[in-house]
Amino acid sequence: MAELWPGLGGPVINYISGPPSERWCHTLPRSLVILGSTGSIGRSALAVVAKQPDFFRILGLACARQVNRLAEQAVTFRPPCLAVLDEDAARALHALLPADYHPRILTGREGYAELASLPEASTVLSAQVGAAGLAGTLAAVLAGKVVCLANKESLVLAGGLVRDICASTGASVLPVDSEHNAIFQCLAGRGQEVNRLILTASGGPFRGKTAAELENVTVEQALKHPNWNMGAKISIDSATLMNKGLEVAEAFHLYGVGVDDITVLVHPQSLVHSMVELADHSLLAQLGTPDMRMAIAHCLMWPHCMPTEVPPLDLTRTALTFHTPDLEAFPCLELARMALRGRGGLSVVLNAANESAVELFLQRQCRFTAIAKLIRKALDAHSASNPGHAPLCPPLAVSVQTDPLALAQEVHILVERISSLDAQSRALVHELVRSGEYSC
Ligand code: MG
Fold first, then answer.
1. pLDDT on residue 394
2. Under DSSP, is residue 199 helix (H, G, I), strand (E, B) or coil?
3. From the CA of 268, how far away is ligand 1's center (Å)?
4. All structural domains of the chain with their residue ranges
């Protein structure tokens, strides 16, 4: 399998983890836990699983609050474990399950972490939304699982930590995000010849609009993504281009390349999912119909390539175009690069400020253009109070081989540190909006 893994043998690509074991590759069915099963990625994953019933056994499903949908999924797949956000959600879920089915129902951050590290689980799909997905991802890598990673925030917040834990526990990461999955596929068996990674961006619903034209856009307009059918948070992130900013951070951590070796190109058709430029200037691209089932199936079934229901791409019916993003109208992309260069927890601040600002925009409490302004304010405030940019997560001092309990404790302390900075940044954004300067 090693030859299918990106970056082996070269100094340019330093992939975040080693490949899954031969045993994992050949043991079927794979026992799968899905964190975020009721969201867009989770539902697509279950559609993939339903088409390949011999390939998977669903061991656990988790959501935050959509208990009706979780109950339907649970009745169909009958996993022995479920997890929800809190006791209220657990009671509501329990009431919806049939009398002959008694799964364990776990709750809260600890519940998600327990589900992600179940000894019987071999594979975890981490697909919760936002910073809330970090605990599950870390629990899965600490437990040495093969993690199909859709929660990009796990890397934005703690990419170095995930890398260190993978090195210690032997966990593997497979990238579900379509751009990173495309790059993963282009890099298979490569590494030393890579010049740069090129992430494509659809440009979102406001592609071509000027900064002035964006002043009065509505929530409904921002939610209308032209090519991909996604949840509300990521749809707004696509409209501001913050999604691409977070994806630059994700690529930085996954592939171990420099910030300046990651280029973003707007590609309105979303058919080229991303590209790799080699030293001789040849380009490798992965293309397909924009449908997340392709990337999800690639990860869940790696290294096998199985048929999916994604329709084939007819290249005779479309032209492919590319252009550079308008950073004046969409400053979030540059803010994310700035945070990544600055380190010292700036990416945590960026992500928290963005999540809060997007939430406030969706609640119609601030303008679309306020999102970037609020993030900039939060970054400036953090830089002013942390001028030395001391690293938030220094390299791990212990390994799983020497002391697994101490490793878990050390990770717990770092997560508390991330959570505290996250909470501070959210509070600042709420305070700024309450002050009236950024409200509608
Ligand atoms: Mg993506």
1. 84
2. strand
3. 14
4. 2-180
Cα(177) to ligand 1 centroid in Å equals 5
- What contacts 373, CB < 8 A, 6 or more positions away? 438
DSSP state letter for 259: G
How many Å lie between the centroid of ligand 1 and the Cα of residue 424?
27
230 closest CA partner among 174, 176, 291, 181 = 291
Stretch 147-162: mean pLDDT: 96
Report, as an integer, the average pLDDT of 265-286.
95
286 C-alpha to center of ligand 1: Å? 13
Question: Ligand 1 center to residue 151 CA distance, Å?
Answer: 10
**Cα angle: 92, vertex 94, 99; to 5 degrees:** 140
What pLDDT was estimated at residue 344? Answer: 79
pLDDT bracket for residue 191 (50, 70, 90):
low
CA–centroid distance, residue 431 to ligand 1 (Å): 31
Using the mean position of ligand 1's atoms as its centre, give its distance from the Cα of residue 243 in Å.
7
Taking the centre of ligand 1 as the mean of its atom positions, its distance from the CA of residue 94, in whole angstroms, is 34
For 79-221, list the strands marked E by DSSP.
81-84, 104-107, 123-126, 146-149, 172-175, 194-201
CA dihedral 20, 6, 152, 293 (to 10 degrees): -80
Ligand 1 mean position to 239 CA, how many Å? 13
86 alpha carbon to ligand 1 midpoint, in Å? 29
Burial class (CB in 10 A: 0-12, 13-18, 19+), 136: buried
107 contacts 90 by C-beta, under 8 angstroms: yes
Q: Measured between alpha carbons, how far is 76 from 70 in angstroms, rounded to an integer?
A: 10
Q: In angstroms, what is the span from residue 85 Cα to ligand 1's centroid?
A: 25
**Which pLDDT does position 2 carry in this prediction?**
62
Specify which residues 319 forms β-bridges with.
none
Cα-to-centroid distance, 247 and ligand 1 (Å): 7
**CA of residue 155 to ligand 1 center, whole Å:** 13
CA dihedral 203, 204, 209, 210 (to 10 degrees): -70
The Å distance, Cα 224 to ligand 1 centre, comes to 16
Q: Which CATH superfamily is domain 2-180 in?
A: NAD(P)-binding Rossmann-like Domain (3.40.50.720)
Q: How far away, in angstroms, is 275 Cα from ligand 1 center?
A: 13
Q: For 56-73, b where at least 16 C-beta lie within 10 A, e where not — what string?
A: bbbbbbbbbebbebbbeb
In the predicted model, what is the mean pLDDT of the chain? 93
